[in-house]
Write a structure and sequence with these properties.
Blueprint (H helix, E strand, L loop, with lengths): L11 H15 L5 H19 L7 E7 L3 E3 L9 H11 L3 E5 H7 L7 E5 L11 E3 L2 H11 L5 E3 L3 H7 L5 E7 L8 E2 L7 E9 L3 E8 L5
Parallel strand pairs: 1-6, 1-7, 3-4, 3-6, 4-5
Antiparallel strand pairs: 2-8, 7-10, 9-10
The structure holds NADP nicotinamide-adenine-dinucleotide phosphate.
């Protein structure tokens, strides 16, 4: 696994920066719930700091030039090269996704473990593991330190919860504009910074972003 700086190496100001994300969101009632979730996650991360543990989370996503990631619960493009990248990158890992994304895929993907967030675990097959909150995902990674790398892989609701807590984002930017999308990649510039371009093609480019709260 790519080593991620132990969170004990983060300074207190790193955490106040994280808290400021919550404060900003708290001013906006629409985001009040998100602010509350982030506050609770900040507490979880802080407890990781005390025990010098790491959160080896990475996110992987594909979006159009106008930030669309989905339409009518499916991905509105078919790019086999990007699917191959996703497969290669995540093979052997844990895919963390929302229930709607799991339903759109329809089955656990081979060679990977699937964790699904849902408030209704009985709706899921026993080939996947259900989680009733984002905190329970973080706590599970923190407690069990799985040897497989966990990948956050959508959809919009889950990226919104999880992206601030991912060390890396691997983003395929598809060179299209999708006018009628209904799922979008949330903004991440507040906590992610450009690291490198991994691949360029005429249809898309794959960009690596790194969480600036995870670097010194
Ligand atoms: N382009 C890409 O990279 C990419 C990747 C993945 C998905 N997608 C697209 O994204 C779209 C789906 O995104 P979405 O936002 O509609 O759905 P989603 O994030 O995949 O799933 C949402 C569901 O996750 C569960 N959930 C959300 N927050 C939770 C929490 N805090 N605790 C417990 N469960 C929670 C809920 O399930 P319950 O309702 O069962 O409680 C909720 O309905 C689809 O169009 C899909 O194709 C695109």
């Amino acid at each position: 696994m790519t080593p991620i700086r132990p969170s004990k190496h983060r300074s207190r100001s790193d955490f106040s920066q994280i808290s400021s994300i919550s404060t900003t969101a708290a001013r906006d009632p629409v985001n009040a719930q998100a602010a509350d979730i982030r506050k609770r996650m900040t507490d979880t991360i802080s407890s990781c700091t005390e025990t010098s543990d790491r959160l080896p989370l990475q996110a992987i996503a594909a979006m159009s030039e106008n930030r669309v990631i989905g339409r009518a619960n499916s991905i509105p493009w078919h790019l086999p090269e990007d699917f191959r990248w996703f497969r290669k990158k995540t093979m052997g890992g844990i895919l963390i996704m929302g229930r709607k994304t799991f339903e759109s895929i329809g089955r656990p993907l081979p060679g990977r473990t699937t964790w699904v967030l849902t408030t209704n675990p009985s709706s899921l097959p026993d080939t996947v593991e259900a989680f009733s909150s984002w905190e329970s995902v973080l706590e599970r990674i923190h407690r069990d330190k799985p040897h497989q790398r966990p990948y956050v892989c959508g959809g919009e609701q889950i990226y919104r919860l999880a992206l601030p807590w991912c060390a890396d984002l691997f983003l395929t930017v598809v060179h299209r504009t999708i006018p009628d999308g209904d799922a979008f990649l949330p903004e991440f510039n507040e906590f992610m910074e450009f690291a490198e371009i991994i691949e360029e093609s005429c249809d898309f480019r794959i960009v690596h972003f790194r969480n600036r709260h995870y670097s010194s």
